[in-house]
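Reading a protein record of the kind used here takes little practice once its layout is understood. The reader may check this reading against the record printed directly beneath this paragraph.
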Amino acid sequence: MSQVRKIEIPEDKVVEILSKLPPKSLMRFKCIRKSLCTIINSPSFVAKHLNNSMDNKLSSTTCILLNRCQVHIFPDRSWKQDVFWSMINLSFDSDEHNLHYDVEDLNIPFPIEDQDNVELHGYCNGIVCVIAGKNVLLCNPATREFKQLPNSSLLLPLPKGRFGLETTFKGLGFGYDCKAKEYKVVRIIDNYDCEYSDDGETYIEHIALPHTAEVYTMAANSWKEITIDILSKILSSYSEPFSYSVYLKGFCYWLSCDVEEYIFSFDLANEISDMIDLPFRGEFGFKRDGIFLYNESPTYYCSSYEEPFTLFEIWVMDYNDGFKSSWTKHLTAGPFKDMEFPLTHWKRDELLMITSDGRVASYNSCSGNFKYLNIPVIINENRVVDYVKSIILVN
């Protein structure tokens, strides 16, 4: 009777093979054998897997993480909001002209009430930072793992008397501190000294105070208060909240639409803030709409709308390790009919956009090709990120 020979594969070969597998497969393999679980959980393997995912993103396919929702209206006029996320994997065929894609819907059991929104505010290395109702959470969509962060010590309930301190959420960012080698969340808070009328409903005085901020570190699982250098006359009591943030090489960036418009940046390592001027534009009729990353540079878009047509301009900052730099107009796209806004701009000059009826379309600025993507309709403005799948733990 012949004996079956057991072949032992060297560990370095096992690591090399595993590091090229998707997170879903690795999560299953962790349950098969303790030795595999030890390998997959090791920091060196997590880093190797992330590097492989980034290399694959640059060389072949792009994954777009889309946050969307669907509202159900009931006969009694009550409503319930279902939150969905979708991963859209985009690639080109061999002649690099035809765009292909597949859609993977995600169902992540966030702790939310029926009418809560899940807003995506930051992204780094496969982890997203979201606000779900009143809670801030970190989530890895590829592994379906999430973590609720401790409550803020700076955001206070509304004053109950005639006088009091009113605090307002201003902005939220998430990224990696390359110096300390840890992930951080930064939250910016507006503060006002308030005096109300006797009925407690209208302001008599509403005086802006210095802004505060707090930084959360995953290692400590706690917030700490820091000072930030923002002029209160610019961030006035009538200003809108910051846009969602984008992260790049240790810095978080927001487009702030206040009395003046600018890019607000935050250095995660040194925990200092700065303001970056937007480029001077002589043309009229354009409004500043949002920011994203394109080719490893902070990028913002503005739009000009004349019913039913929309024209988009995309400007790229000549990035210099977080320091102020110049702007270059990269693209003018359109005019498009019934197009609301661009979602993101990615490699091979593809501009992903949303139409007025919630459909997603891809436009190639070089070839002029225009293609609607067959994914579920988006019914409100939602955040997208150029996503890299990772197995980084948030718990």
